[in-house]
Amino acid sequence: MSSPQSPIILPSDPHKHAQLANAVLMVRPTSFKFNIESFETNPNQKNIQQNNAMEEFAASVKLLTDNGVHVIVMEDVSEYDKVWNDERSPDEIFPNNVFGTMPDGSIIVYPMLNRNRQLEAKRLKHIRSALAKENYQASHVVELLHGPKGEALEGTGSLVIDHDGGVVYMARSERSSPLVLKRFMNLHSKYYKKAVCFDSVQSQERGQGMPFYHTNVVMSIGEGFALVCLESIKDETERQLVVDTLKESGKEVIDVSLKQTEESFCCNALEVRTRDGQDKVIIMSESAQKGFTTDQLKRMKDTGSKIVALPITTIEQIGGGSARCMCMEVWKDRNNA
Question: Which terminus of the chain is more solvent-facing, meaning fewer CB atoms within 10 Å of its CB: N or C?
């Protein structure tokens, strides 16, 4: 049964966007497995044999839907298999790295670091088809290119965007290039006036002091709050700049420890509006919810949001990503933009 369709309504102020999307696109993990290509920059991945990803995905979609979130599920695409001779990306379950819709109605295709994730960009027509079935017609498509040395910018993994504040945050890494970020900013200068770049470093125990591969592992911005692992930002000037800029945008800064970030994916969360636009939901994993302190959870709930925790232990262990990575934001109805 098809879901009720929402109209596309352009923002009354074209230079201001609403922070929260009111739908998410998720990709069923038919090919999900340990990705050896991405392991080099993501030590959170574990090559375990038990794979309950399909069951966890189905349970997550049901849980989100039951809590009022509009979920668009991208199913398996047989044409894609034929074109690429069954060479599939193990990480298709994380579509927000490759594709993104923007509040202005555009779709962006982002340049990925690893070859088997670059193949996912060929699914653009299928992404557009899935969105069109939900009455989302893209105003235009922007394909960001790799830098001259193959530099990447992996979607809203690399970019954590304060839409209503007009600020883009990025933690530098092999997957997040300042050069490609500059191109993104130039293309969207009407909406985003400032980029805040910083270095975010993993612990010696978990990541041998490597940069965090994605910004959304150490940061999440909601309508009234921001989760950020300040402990991972070693440079004092950069750390203070992040805090000051968030506060200037009216965000309550909730500091998340390095242990919570690495062990529980506590910063990998996404706040969205429900289908009817009346309520707000913070999507996170069960491990993240358990990893937060009582005070941290209260501060999030006090902003008027309900927490929905997804049962995705296997997906986190094998994929090295969590709930936010599974959700590509879709602005179906921009009444509040």
Answer: N
Look up residue 238 and give its DSSP letter.
H
292 — phi, psi (to 5°)?
Answer: -70, 150
Q: What is the structure's pLDDT at 329?
A: 96
| Backbone φ and ψ of 129, nearest 5° | -65, -45
- Kindly provide the b/e burial profile for residues 168-207, where b requires at least 16 CB atoms within 10 angstroms of the residue's own CB: bbbbbbbbbbeebbebbbeebeebbeeebbbebbbbeeeb
Q: For residue 8, which of 106, 90, 146 has the smallest C-alpha distance?
A: 106
Residues contacting 132, CB < 8 A, separation 6+? none
292 neighbors 235 (Cβ within 8 angstroms): no
d(CA 202, CA 270): 21
Question: Among 309, 286, 284, 314, which residue's Cα sits nearest to residue 32?
Answer: 314
Name which of 175, 158, 155 is nearest 41 in CA terms: 175
CA-nearest of 109, 131, 133, 113 to 122 is 109
Nearest Cα to Cα of residue 251 among 227, 217, 235: 227
Confirm if 321 and 215 have CB atoms less than 8 A apart: no
Helix (H/G/I), strand (E/B), else coil: 277? coil
pTM: 0.89
Provide the edge-to-edge strand list for the sheet that holds 219-221.
219-221, 225-228, 252-255
Which residues, other chains included, contact 274 with Cβ-Cβ below 8 Å and sequence gap of 6+?
A: 22, 67, 68, 69, 70, 280, 281
Q: How confident is the model at residue 76, as a pLDDT? A: 62
Separation CA 52–CA 94 (nearest Å): 16
- The series of mean pLDDT values per 10 residues for the chain, 337 residues long, is 34 60 92 66 64 90 98 72 54 90 92 87 89 88 95 97 96 96 95 96 83 96 97 98 98 98 97 94 98 98 97 86 94 53
- Listed in sequence order, the residues at least 6 apart from 33 whose beta carbon sits closer than 8 Å to its beta carbon are 51, 90, 318
